[in-house]
Give the backbone structure.
Amino acid sequence: MNASEFLSDDFKAADLVAGPRVLTIKSVVTRTFEAKREGDRTSVKLYLSFEEDRRGVSLNGERTRAVIALAGDPETDNWAGTKIELFYDPNARGYSGARGGIGVRAPGAKK
């Protein structure tokens, strides 16, 4: 049995605590996320895959705006090849309200 089959296909904030990752967008698709709590709705989000890593990342509003700015185009069909930097953002709030999340910025930029 290959244990890597049990690893997440998504970047987690904890993956970036040790340092940011510069990645090249390979493709953009939509993914449906089921409601996590009763009363919540199913959501559809943009999801990035990368050339350098098997893991991807879903985009919330803030990350979407950052990628649009970095790609210079709101059309997702034109995002492939765009380099972005994923970093641990201690001020971001996750779905549960916990502090710490994934941020997107230009490679080498400091927040």
About this structure: Residues 24-105 form one domain.
